[in-house]
Write a structure and sequence with these properties.
Number of domains: 2
GO biological process, one term: RNA processing
Order of helices and strands: EHHEHEHEHEEHEHEHEEEHEH
Number of helices: 10
Domain RNA 2-O ribose methyltransferase substrate binding: 31-104
Distance between the termini: 50 Å
CATH architecture of the largest domain: 3-Layer(aba) Sandwich
Radius of gyration: 21 Å
CATH superfamily of the largest domain: SPOUT methyltransferase, trefoil knot domain
CATH class of the largest domain: Alpha Beta
Pfam families: MRM3-like_sub_bind, SpoU_methylase
Keywords: Methyltransferase, Transferase
CATH topology of the largest domain: Alpha/beta knot
Shape: elongated
Helix content: 25-40%
Protein name: RNA methyltransferase
Largest sheet: 7 strands, parallel
Number of strands: 12
Length: 256
């Protein structure tokens, strides 16, 4: 255990740097913050390289068996120092540095997938991943141009779903062809003359859905490859839905 009382401490500086993608990539690590995320990491056997807590939190976790395995990597950090490290509006007094998961491993084609094409808002990325987890999807495929899943806003929105749902980074166009060769039906959301209502989507295991960029939608090159485009009928006056909301609607449609 190490006690830290200064913001000039080297470990504190290194942890603060991980708020930037550049340093996350260099170290292959990232930060999770808050009791729920850290409990999820421990329960799903994700080693904590460093666990930083405030003195008041330290008094609490000493009595919790769940934290016994991580006390050797423990940093007890002064309250004000911890606030300088935190990215939360109201810090809970606990954060950890963990290794990135392997996101480019071979993909097992054994169930439905959600594929994201240049989805850039961190909250949308995290919410879609969490919803795919809740809907029982087999994985999330992130194409080029998507937000980095290891940034703090994505972490908060995912709420630990990345510990138990496979997330892959792949070029989407060749992967669409791979799916189709494996007898998958690939859908994409779009407003075009050929699009059908999402209610007509066939519920089955070998299915994938592509959701597109918040402003531009799914790229034309991907639309030319899919088996069917779908849309969500909207009887109200709004012109469009948030991409994370739309993804949730279509994902739960196909698992009914």
């Amino acid at each position: 255990m190490e006690v830290i009382t200064s913001t000039k401490n080297q470990t504190v500086k290194e942890i603060k740097k991980l708020a930037k993608k550049k340093y996350r990539d260099q170290t292959n690590t990232y930060v999770i913050e808050g009791f729920h995320l850290i409990e999820e990491a421990i329960q799903y056997n994700q080693p904590l390289k460093k666990l930083a807590v405030t003195p008041s939190v330290f008094e609490t976790i000493q009595e919790v068996e769940l934290f016994a395995s991580v006390l050797e990597s423990l940093l007890v950090v002064d309250e004000l120092v911890f606030q300088s490290m935190s990215t939360l509006p109201t810090p809970q007094g606990i954060l950890a540095v963990v290794d990135k998961e392997k996101v480019n491993q071979a993909i097992s084609l054994d169930g439905p997938f959600i594929m994201l094409d240049q989805v850039q808002d961190p909250g949308n990325i995290g919410t879609i991943i969490r919803t795919a987890d809740a809907a029982g999807f087999s994985g999330v495929i992130l194409g080029e141009g998507c937000a980095d899943i290891y940034q703090p806003k994505v972490m908060r929105a995912m709420q630990g779903s990345h510990f138990h749902l496979p997330i892959y980074q792949q070029a989407l166009e060749p992967f669409v062809k791979t799916l189709q060769q494996a007898d998958y039906t690939v859908y994409a959301t779009a407003l075009d003359s050929q699009a059908k209502s999402y209610r007509e989507m066939i519920s089955k295991e070998k299915l994938a859905i592509i959701m597109g960029n918040e402003g531009q939608g799914v790229s034309d090159s991907l639309l030319s490859l899919v088996d069917q485009t779908v849309y969500i009928p909207m009887p109200g006056h709004a012109e469009s839905l948030n991409v994370a909301v739309a993804a949730g609607i279509v994902m739960f449609q196909v698992i009914k």
